[in-house]
Amino acid sequence: MESIPGWQVIFLGGIATWIVFSSILNVTQKLRSLTQPWVSHYVMSGTSIVLKIQKYEHRYLDAFFSGLSCVVSVPFYTAFLPLLFWSGHCKLARQMTLLMAFCDYMGNCIKDVVSAPRP
């Protein structure tokens, strides 16, 4: 088994430290009060553009985006990542797992902090 690089340990430790300090200092509410008015205004001003784009329908685009949504879903990665481990690409699989976890965490963190309305 390969050793875990030091930067990955430091990175995960940094995430854990951020979680602890942001909970203690109530960072979420402070950031939300700063960002939510701007984001809400931006979402409401762009609603007409979103509606125009959604009115454009095409059979091939529907199939393309339907297939694309399957490739970026959790079930796809749940099936794909073990294949990397089983095929002997442990380092790549570990890095992709960390990348997926980081992106998932950051995306949910941003959604929680901003709490933007849906158009």
TrEMBL record:
Sorted alphabetically, the keyword list is: Endoplasmic reticulum, Hydrolase, Membrane, Transmembrane, Transmembrane helix
The yes or no answer to whether the keyword Ribonucleoprotein is present is no
What GO molecular function annotation could you give as one example from this UniProt entry? hydrolase activity
The organism's superkingdom is given as Eukaryota
Record field: transmembrane: 6-27, 63-86
Q: Does the keyword Magnesium apply?
A: no
Question: Protein name, please?
Answer: Lipid phosphate phosphatase delta
